[in-house]
Amino acid sequence: MTERIVLASGSPFRKAMLDAAGVAPDVIPAEIDERSVEKTLEGTGASPEEVAQILAEAKATEVSARYPGRLVLGCDQTLSLGDELLHKPRDMEDARRRLLALSGRTHQLNSAAVLARNGETFWHHVGVASLTMRKLEPAFIGRHLARVGPVVLNSVGAYQIEGEGIQLFDKIEGDHFTIVGLPLLPLLKELRDLGAIDG
């Protein structure tokens, strides 16, 4: 018997991926302060992958506690550049600085998915993608951001790989879904195994 899942995220990209895969979720964004959750992890040695998983768990458990019996999917994505964990740019100037920092370097995107029911998690997966940005001239960065506009503020890397942002890269290792923010193939397998979707 299949069941309709709850997506504990307001991300239009994650919803679009699930819709395209035939898994139309109910969207109920989690009511958590992500920066406060991250603050509790400072000094613990948590890896960027673990931070993504912990944030995804916080979202999934918060929503599943409010909606007993429902199958809830929590997601989060972190970007790591060396040992540094980066967050979404605050404004276009911050986006410009982000692209300058990523220019000519390799960074990792860590996309976590967690399933929970009744406030308890029972499955998780973190997909990791490695992206090498080509060397970007500052003037090009300015022109690029002027063309694509503030949509880049929705992305931790200040780019949309599914749009013109693909032109920023020399090399990508990892699957498209992980890069966009959801390790979709492992999630679909688990949903089939649970009988939540037709398999």
Automatic annotation (TrEMBL):
Q: Which cellular compartments is it found in?
A: Cytoplasm
Q: Which UniProt keywords apply?
A: Cytoplasm, Hydrolase, Nucleotide metabolism
InterPro entries on file: ITPase-like_fam, Maf-like
Q: Which domain of life is it from?
A: Bacteria
Q: Which residues form the active site?
A: 76
What's its EC? 3.6.1.-
Q: Which reaction equation describes what this protein catalyses? A: N(7)-methyl-GTP + H2O = N(7)-methyl-GMP + diphosphate + H(+)
A Pfam family annotated for this chain is: Maf
Q: Which cofactor does it need?
A: a divalent metal cation
Site note Important for substrate specificity, residues: 13, 77, 162
Relate the protein's function as given in its record.
Answer: Nucleoside triphosphate pyrophosphatase that hydrolyzes 7-methyl-GTP (m(7)GTP). May have a dual role in cell division arrest and in preventing the incorporation of modified nucleotides into cellular nucleic acids.
PANTHER family of this UniProt entry?
BIFUNCTIONAL DTTP/UTP PYROPHOSPHATASE/METHYLTRANSFERASE PROTEIN-RELATED, BIFUNCTIONAL DTTP_UTP PYROPHOSPHATASE_METHYLTRANSFERASE PROTEIN-RELATED
Q: Which family does it belong to?
A: Belongs to the Maf family. YceF subfamily.
Which NCBIfam families does the entry mention? Answer: PRK02478.1
| Name of the molecule in the record | 7-methyl-GTP pyrophosphatase
Organism name:
Mesorhizobium marinum
